[in-house]
């Protein structure tokens, strides 16, 4: 019994120590269980972030986004701009700001997709959308 308790204590201690590198600063969950987590992890490696992202809550058939920053990009306010979003897309737009070092998207099938340049990818998508809109306007004239 003592050995079992020691093993349990060691496991809990290991998990607690490994999670101390990650501070959750934002969370969004829609009524239909789409989720977005935002963490600050100043000392974690990219591989540690990926491992941490793999353990995040996910609902089958839904999407979960997990974003990591080295410092809080929203200043001292916590649980503000993202948690009050109307949907996952709005929460994501508010969450992906300069300084994001890793994004993990857990898709509706549970597959994990990582991006180490999420802010730049987001800006590129916005620019491509603008170019596409301009092309449609010209075509419609």
What is the subunit organization of this protein?
A: single chain
How far is it from the N-terminal to the C-terminal residue, by CA? Answer: 79 Å
Mean pLDDT, all residues: 81
- The poorly predicted ranges are 2-18
Q: What class do helices, strands and sheet pairing give? A: alpha+beta
Shape label: globular
The largest sheet, given as strand count, sense and whether it forms a barrel, is:
5 strands, mixed
Element-by-element helix/strand order: HEEHEHEEH
DSSP helix fraction: 40-55%
Question: Which sequence of strands runs across the widest sheet?
Answer: 1-2-3-4-5
- Quantity of strands, as a count: 5
Tell me the radius of gyration.
18 Å
Count of alpha/pi helices: 4
In what range is the share of β-strand residues?
A: 15-25%
């Amino acid at each position: 019994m003592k050995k079992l308790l020691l093993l349990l204590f060691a496991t809990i201690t290991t998990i607690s120590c490994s999670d101390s590198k990650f501070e959750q600063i934002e969370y969004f969950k829609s009524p239909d269980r789409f989720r977005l987590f935002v963490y600050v992890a100043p000392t974690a490696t990219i591989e540690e972030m990926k491992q941490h992202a793999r353990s995040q809550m996910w609902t089958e058939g839904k999407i979960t986004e997990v974003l990591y920053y080295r410092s809080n990009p929203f200043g001292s306010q916590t649980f503000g701009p993202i948690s009050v979003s109307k949907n996952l897309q709005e929460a994501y737009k508010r969450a992906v700001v300069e300084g994001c070092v890793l994004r993990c998207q857990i898709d509706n099938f549970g597959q994990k997709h990582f991006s180490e340049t999420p802010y730049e990818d987001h800006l590129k998508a916005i620019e491509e959308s603008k170019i596409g809109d301009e092309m449609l306007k010209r075509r419609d004239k």
